[in-house]
Design a protein that fits this description.
The complex is a heterodimer of chains A (about 70) and B (about 160).
Chain A lengths: L3 E5 L6 H11 L6 E6 L4 H12 L2 E8 L2 E7 L2
Parallel strand pairs in A: 1-2
Antiparallel strand pairs in A: 2-4, 3-4
Chain B lengths: L9 E6 L4 H16 L3 E6 L24 E4 L2 E4 L10 H15 L5 H10 L3 E5 H6 L12 E3 L1 H10 L2 E4 L1
Parallel strand pairs in B: 1-2, 1-7, 2-5, 5-6
Antiparallel strand pairs in B: 3-4
Classes of the chains: A alpha+beta (about 70), B alpha/beta (about 160).
Chain lengths: ~70, ~160
């Protein structure tokens, strides 16, 4: 289960990514960060962010207009 | 605090505009790039210098923005250039924009700028235009360097991405 959670609901680009990066900086390798966002652009953005930075996108799902991502810190 | 190595990508952005709408692209791109481990240099010149002031008072105008369509009352209202002549219209457009930004959870320029500083984006203010507009370095945020075209050029020659905004 997630070691940390980030509630980025209601925030628009680029805040979900900026805040995700900030949280990851304070975490150690192997830990899991759960991010919740309502910004539909965040689906593509989280994938791109993980591809670029080497953090692993473990899963993504959505319930209504809330998207949840699980990221494993590299 | 960037995770940099030999494969680190570099980017420079030349920032030439100082209105509220034009402030967003450079700061969004710069902070997002920094969050994605790109080494970023932002070179502020001409009206872009206004974005470095300690006290930001950014505005927009309907003039010169023929594509501007503001969401109003469930529709999109076009803003013809001529409307800008009417006293108070630009101020109203600016207020409308600021309210929309807050309502939609979009970051303020102040916050984005702070994020840029925090992620060690290199911020360079153009010496020549500081001088030209008689702007005082003391009015700018502390985290800036002063440089000229050659300073930008050196970074640009090594960068993967160079943008002019």
């Amino acid at each position: 289960m997630a070691d940390q959670t980030l509630d980025a609901k209601g925030l628009n680009c680029p805040l979900p990514i900026l805040k995700t990066k900030k949280m990851i900086k304070g975490m150690t390798a192997g830990q899991i960060l759960e991010v919740m966002a309502t910004d539909p652009g965040s689906i593509a953005d989280m994938t791109a962010f993980c591809n670029q930075t080497g953090n692993e996108l473990l899963s993504q799902s959505n319930e209504g207009d809330v998207y949840t991502f699980e990221i494993k810190v590299a | 605090m960037l995770d940099t190595g030999d494969n680190t990508k570099k980017m420079t952005i030349i920032v030439t505009k100082g209105t509220l709408d034009w402030a967003y692209p450079p700061f969004i791109l710069g902070t997002t790039a920094a969050a994605m481990d790109v080494e970023v240099t932002m070179f502020f010149t001409f009206y872009g210098l206004g974005l470095l002031k300690k006290d930001l008072d950014l505005k927009i105008s309907t003039l010169g923005n023929p594509a501007m369509q503001m969401p109003m009352g469930g529709m999109h209202m076009s803003m013809p250039n001529i409307v800008s002549m009417v006293p108070g219209v630009d101020r109203m457009a600016t207020t409308m924009m600021k309210n929309l930004i807050k309502k939609k959870g979009v970051a303020s320029i102040e916050d984005l700028r702070e994020a840029a500083v925090e992620s060690e984006v290199r911020i360079i203010a153009c010496q020549m235009t500081l001088d030209l507009f008689e702007l005082d370095k003391k009015d700018m945020i502390d985290e800036i360097e002063i440089g000229g075209a050659a300073t930008w050029m050196e970074e640009a020659a090594k960068s993967d991405i160079n943008l002019y905004i």
